[in-house]
Amino acid sequence: MTRQTLRRPTYFILAALLDGPLHGYGIIKRVEVLSDGELRLRAGTLYAALDRLVGQGLVVPEREEVVSGRLRRYYGLTPDGGELLAAEAADLRRAADLVLSVTQSPATRTA
Amino acid sequence: MKLSQRAYRLALHAYPARFRIVREREILSTLAEVQGDRLLPRAGELCALVRGGLGERNRVDLTEGGGWWWRALGSLAIPLTCVNAAVGLAGLWVAWSLPNGPGRWWPAFATLALVLAVTVAARLRVVGAALGLATFAMVAADALIMTQNPPVAAPHLRILEHYPPSGAQVPLSHAVTIPRARVSRPVGVRSLQPERARPLRRRPRPGLRRRDSVAQGRIG
Hints:
The complex is a heterodimer.
Chain A: H1 8-16, H2 24-34, H3 43-56, E1 59-67, E2 70-77, H4 79-103, H5 106-110
Antiparallel strand pairs in A: 1-2
Chain B: H1 3-11, H2 17-35, H3 43-58, H4 68-75, H5 77-96, H6 105-121, H7 125-148, E1 158-159, E2 176-177, H8 189-192, H9 206-216
Antiparallel strand pairs in B: 1-2
């Protein structure tokens, strides 16, 4: 069975959790940094994606804390989530290599 | 509470209640951090909340990828079906309440049939949305036809042109003539001949004749 390609926001959300559990606002800021400011997640988008990822067993809520009256729930990557992210990254690398190997070959450069 | 928090809390009602109970405080906390010192709510955040809520209600992901508006349209299939059901039932009631029975029954029944089809097809989001829109268009067209050809203009219901006399208070039921049933003639030479079209001759009712006479001052 072929694996479904991750959408861009989902990919970056999973990538943001590679360094450890983060809460909602932390994920938004981390995704912004990882994507060089290209991707700015909305809260509605983030929590819809998190809800789906939790349902798929790729992300798990780990702990909660209240800071200045604000509830922060931390989400972490599950082993399945990590594997899926690694597989997606490998696919992206193969796809990138396919193009780069042609565009950066000597024959292409001289042409 | 700040204006932005009120607006976000209102937008969160797009989500089902079970989701809000679990996530509302967390989402509002995140939005408060995103918001910073800004007073007015961000339109993008409000839109994302509504999209996320609609998607959550209909189990459709409306937050990512291209063509989300198609999925949003599909997610509207169920509410659209409910509206159509209400309109269809109203049309059915109108059709059955006409004096001569269900003269225009087919649009209402067709609407209900399509409503059922939409309900079934709601799982196929785009198909459901297309069917829902088609139903809605049909009901609108039927309403337009009914407006242009109201039931009282139907040929079997004639309103007497000169009745009631000016100034008279007559019940509405008197102003409508009901077509008479055809009476079979006794078999004879004349009845075997092809019947010629005769101009319709209206005989005023006794009450009317007397009242007209009274109005003209001939009697009494």
